[in-house]
Request: fold
Amino acid sequence: MIVTVLLISIVMLNSCTKVVDIKVGNDTDKLVIEGMVIDTAGSQSVKLTTNVPFSNSNTYPPVTGAIVSVNDGNGSTYNYIEGPSGIYTSPAFVAKAGNNYTMHVLVNGTDYTASSRMPELVVLDSLSSKVSPFDSKQREVTVYYKDPAGKANYYRFVMFLNGVQVKAVFVFNDDFNDGKKVSIDLSDDDTDMFSGDKVTVEMQCIDKSIFTYWNTLMQQGGSGPGGGVTPSNPPTNISPSVLGYFSAHTSQKKSMVLK
Amino acid sequence: MLTGSLRSFAQKRYTLSGVIKDEVTGETLIGATVRIKELPQSGSSTNNYGFYSLSAPEGKYTLLFTYVGYETISRTVSLNQNQSINVSILAKGNLQEVVITANKANSDQVKSPQMGLEKLNMAQINNVPVIMGEKDILKTISLMPGIKASSEGNTGFYVRGGGSDQNLILLDEATVYNASHLFGFFSTFNSDAIKDVSIYKGGMPAQYGGRLSSVLDIKMNEGNSKDFTVQGGIGLIASRLKVEGPIVKDKGSFMVSARRTYVDAFLKLSSDTAIKNSSLYFYDINVKANYHFNDKNAIYISGYFGKDVLGLKNIFGTNWGNATGTIRFNHLFSNRLFSNTSLIYSNYNYTIQNFQNDQGFKAVSKITDLNLKQDFQYSLNDNHLVKFGVNVLHHTISPGSINSDGSSSYNNVKTELRYGFENAAYISDEWKVSDKLSVLYGVRLNGMFLTGPGTFKSYDLKGEVLSSSTYKSNQLVKSYFNLEPRLSASYQLNEQSSVKASYNRNTQNVHLLSNSTSSTPTDLYVISSKNIKPEIADQVSAGYFRNFKDNAFEFSAEVYYKALQNQIDYKDGAQLIVNQDVEAELTYGSGRAYGIELFLKKKYGRFNGWVGYTLSKTERKFDAINGGKYFSARQDRTHDLSLVGIYTLNKRWTFSGTFVYATGNAVTYPTGKYNIGGLTTYSYSARNSYRQPATHRLDLGATLEGKENKKFSSSWTFSIYNVYSRRDPFSITFRDSKTDPTKTEAVQTSIFATPIPSVTWNFKF
Reply:
């Protein structure tokens, strides 16, 4: 990652980028499901939308009239209520670690199902900021947590800069730091962060299939030499196959003002 | 035929053999020909060590020794016993080369049964303009038809639809795993140290094996055995120095050639902290020595060592490099039986280090080969040249390890080493069936043996473990045998033209896993295992070859079809670095490639050069990708055109130019978008169903020779890369619009957006 960053900065001495007009085909009006159960009250939601042509604006038509429910694996089923913008919600429960949640979405006669096991919470200890090694005016954010030893853990971080989500995927596993006190720098080539900016970081403990989903998107995000890996739709845990995922995960947030 | 055989039995035949050398430097010449004037059908050419062998009935003859760019010399000989004749021939001077027309040029390309072979003349490589003035073998070969550069500025190349890891790159017989410096901007081959470059695109002779698509056989200079000379060059980004000379005059010589870039010196001048604190350089050293004990025994020792270093002070560092070593012993059992024994070492390794306290670690990966080869060349008679041999190649692969100290947030991670033998035996015969028909046929038997110690798992399609077994040291885990037939034939239509056809099977047991298209140091090598089967390619090709104007022009047209089995790709989100279970991340499929290559070359005269054009299709098929349907491989390029021109104005000035045009890469563009996790995300349909815009570029070069002086000579090389500022797309990516965040846009990155001039000063004394 960091190698690519340096390579890019060197290559950029003589390179240029420009916005180009590309003719692409349309394979749209496909169902997109984003389902989440988290360990915070009042936040269980499943969002149903469809994809749109590349040339459209970034607004996505809601899918209405679906029947959505989630089973907690202990005999309780929660029926979701349709709200605006294709968001279906249930205020009735808080997800618990170790439970295997199963989502059912019935749309136009097709029953889409997916399961996700809620991981144990790993505490987000703290955030700190430091000067970027690539540009002394800029800042980087570091997150700290203690990885539990002896089992596989997967993490996703969502970063907000002055209230706006940073457009990058940050996911990590513990292959190389199982059981360690971990510090990870969060930075994105296209996001400039300066002293005085307010940063909020959400840490999610996710399951393996969701890690693979986000990791696929993260690898495709690379715009380094060769344009990163050949892009494809990330592998979903929903069947029958559809765009999107269903994730049971923990959610913690911390904020700081960059020094 | 019958009368011919009778005659040859009736008369006693004797064998002539010897070595052909350059008169000035004493370097042996590879591929020089010997002919008997009185017997027009006789002929032989020198092997990789300059050795030839030829037989004829008793008699008085005139021998003609010829080599491209050299004066032809003749010797009269009374053949009444087996004889050894060593000759030295003189390179034509620059001016003479212009004046003398090609009437003595040989017509090997028409007559030889070999096809799919491109040979590069070092003089041409030196004249072809390249980026930053660093003349480069790999960039020059990508100007040949059927050979395509993997991307702009990159030394990776694709041959007839094969991947860049399917090329066997040999430097004095040692495998070079990563042939690029600085992520592929430069190749590891310093052309000062190189004597001969041959690339086989098809019809591979049986003595080569191990990769599917091509063999790039590079041989180093042996060193001047007559005089000490020093030559070098000072360029904008790199300098070179070569020293060579006799160890014992006419018996042994040495050569040492080194170069280093100094881009980092310029980085220090930058005001940008990141650039100022970064290091970025490479160096490489070629060393070779030889000693001829007598006419029958000679020893050659050669080595290469290269390293790339890239880093940011106190933050991270990475370095990678190849090392190779070859010891060869030539022995002449008789003047018909030539033997070479080689012991070869090859190593590629990379290290990535993070120096930050709490995130410090050091990741290391390497592959080491030890190879023992025994090759024989037997001139059975005038009509049969038999080659046979065996080799035992041992691989040790360290897929990666991570080392860290106590304060780091990283653990020590170690993956098991992998060991394997690749053993092979081959035999081939070049048979002159008649005056018109020649056949080169042979077979290679390849055995792959994966051995312990270690725990070896097999996985199902989903990557779940099916079984796991532990093996002891040297215990056989898995073996594969492959028989590789090789056949190539030529039929001469007349003195100027011939048709040829070939079939060959190649297999590959060392596989590269890389999730990037550029050559990155973290490329990971794996060997065939319980899960990974040997890759297999079958290629048929046919061609028409014609020479014009006393062999000054060569024209060829070749068609090929290649079927590939057991191709490897990786699953989405695969983690390749330091992963013991990396085989669980793989998926397997097949491929096919076909095309036509047209090539017209002018070999001599004031103006020379070539035009190469390829029309081709390259596809891959994987159950897990694109719904199991064929898709265009990334290296698929419908049209590929190269023009190379070199013009010698006078004794001092030479001008050159290259123009390339190619269909854009097959790429996957979004066919829609949606929002997930708060991010604009793109949806995709068929893989690689779109094309990047076509690429094209013009480069110009000029060489100014200094005033002639017996003791000291110098020259200036000027070049301009990308003369008309073409902004070829390097990548096209998609993002939310910077000006209107409610929209999305496509962004094209070009790495060389402006003309890049360069100048190099070369000297020799």
